[in-house]
Amino acid sequence: MTHTSFTCSSSLSPGVFGCSLILACQGFYSASDDVVELNPSNFNREVLQSDSLWLIEFYAPWCGHCQSLTADWKKTATALKGIVKVGAVDADQHKSLGGQYGVKGFPTIKIFGANKNKPDDYQGARSSQAIVDGALNALRSLVKDRMSGRSGGSDYNRQSGGGGGGSKKDVVELTDDNFDRLVLGSDDVWLVEFFAPWCGHCKNLEPEWTAAASAVKEQTKDKVHLGAVDATVHQGLASRYGIRGFPTIKIFKKGEEPEDYQGGRTRSDIIAQALDLFSENAPPPAIYEILNEDVLKKTCEEYQLCVIAVLPHILDTGAAGRNGYLEVMMKMAEKYKKKMWGSVWLWTEAGAQMDLEASLGIGGFGYPAMAAINARKMKFALLKGSFSETGIHEFLRDLSVGRGSTATVGGGALPKINSVEPWDGKDGELPVEEDYDLSDIDLDDDFGKEEL
Fold first, then answer.
1. Residue 25 annotated as catalytic
2. Which whole number is the average pLDDT over 244-250?
3. What is the reported pLDDT for 249?
4. 92: closest CA among 246, 272, 270, 310?
5. Which of 8, 66, 300, 306 is catalytic?
């Protein structure tokens, strides 16, 4: 079985699909196991500053595939004890760590070798024997590199300032001249560090702030910004915001008084806070009507998960009924907008996109109907329960833990989409039947006569 980055998070199960839709439960590993539990507090010390080879599983407690891997992962750790370090990160609880290393699905296994900043993805099977073999192969490569003179040791300065370390250009330099325009005039969220060049704590924070800035810029699509103010030069700004110690970090949101940042000072802590702020301030989700080819393909290709509803014809429900279905979809989209797996919600009227319905097997059991599609794998699952908040939640939850049944999209590709006019928000009108005047048609002349 080949590992991909989408297992329990954005692919349809088994190994295809599942989304982080339910709360994390207790972790899989205890102190009695040979697996080292890793988190933002100990990751830098245990892994990044280590000369050892590390094999690390990023998991989520709700993920069925992760649950299945647990026994093999413990067995792997015991077999490699004293040879290769084996760790695990609850990436559902510590999203910042997962985000820092591009983890988008569960379980994801990464090998941290000579360059801890650029771990390799483990691509092998998920059995303990295969994982041990993969670790030993990576270890042999590490030893070979060291024998040839290529450094395999840790470089602490490089680790804290680079690799996953980001680019200093992603930290916006703020001054008395540009602060109001860039920060106060922005609709986005800003985290601003007020520092002094001579401050030791500020120097320690700099590589963490830089790494976080690059990660946050990418993960929030440049909607949360990290800036820095040299408070010894721009004393007017420091005075305005009552800065009395360094570094001081403040959070700026449009139309609100700035608030003090209360989180930790590691890149993981900063990223986690920024992602929370991004989620809180994310705009209300849009529900798109499928009007043409672009609406379906562009949105489904951009997002990990495409949820499509086929609603009854307007003559069957009227505007009130249709709006009721759309309201259910809107509530569910709003509920899960903070989940980092990413989804888009679409709808069409029954009969408007027959090729789409056929490719998803919709239409045989009535409307409304709903399908969840992983466009990257061309796999889908159908809602079998009620079209309600509870029914849709259970549908997506079951997929996330590997209980949902899936199929391949008909034809293996998104179907042809008809261009249609958008719904005008009104009740439907029955088509007007044309009246025919039959008074001038002579039906009697030959009617009833037998032809010999």
1. no
2. 94
3. 97
4. 272
5. 66
Could you list the beta-strand ranges (E) of 175-266: 189-195, 224-230, 248-252, 259-260
108-112 β-sheet, strand order: 36-38, 85-90, 54-59, 108-112, 120-121
Rounded to whole angstroms, the Cα distance separating 128 from 35 reads: 13
Dihedral over Cα of 179, 180, 181, 185: its sign: positive
Distances, alpha carbon 401 to alpha carbons 2, 17, 376, 397, in Å: 19, 9, 20, 7
Is 8 an active-site residue? no
pTM above 0.70, yes or no: no
Which is catalytic among the residues 8, 19, 25, 202? 202
Given a contact cutoff of 8 angstroms between Cβ atoms, the answer to whether 64 and 401 are in contact is yes
Q: What is the largest CA-CA distance in the chain?
A: 119
For range 203-217, the mean pLDDT: 90
List domains and CATH numbers for the chain.
Answer: 36-155 (3.40.30.10), 165-280 (3.40.30.10), 287-412 (3.40.30.10)
Beta carbons of 414 and 300 less than 8 angstroms apart: yes
Please write the tens of the pLDDT for every residue from 142-169.
888 777 765 543 332 333 333 345 678 8
Alpha-carbon distance of 277 to 268, in angstroms, equals: 14
Asked if 63 is an active-site residue, the reply is: yes
Instruction: Give the Cβ contact number of residue 405 at 10 Å.
Output: 12
Question: Which pLDDT does position 14 carry in this prediction?
Answer: 32
What are 372-404's pLDDT values in tens digits?
998 878 889 999 889 999 999 888 878 766 677
| Residue 331 CB contacts under 8 Å (≥ 6 apart), including other chains | 389
SS3 80: coil
Catalytic residue status for 199? yes
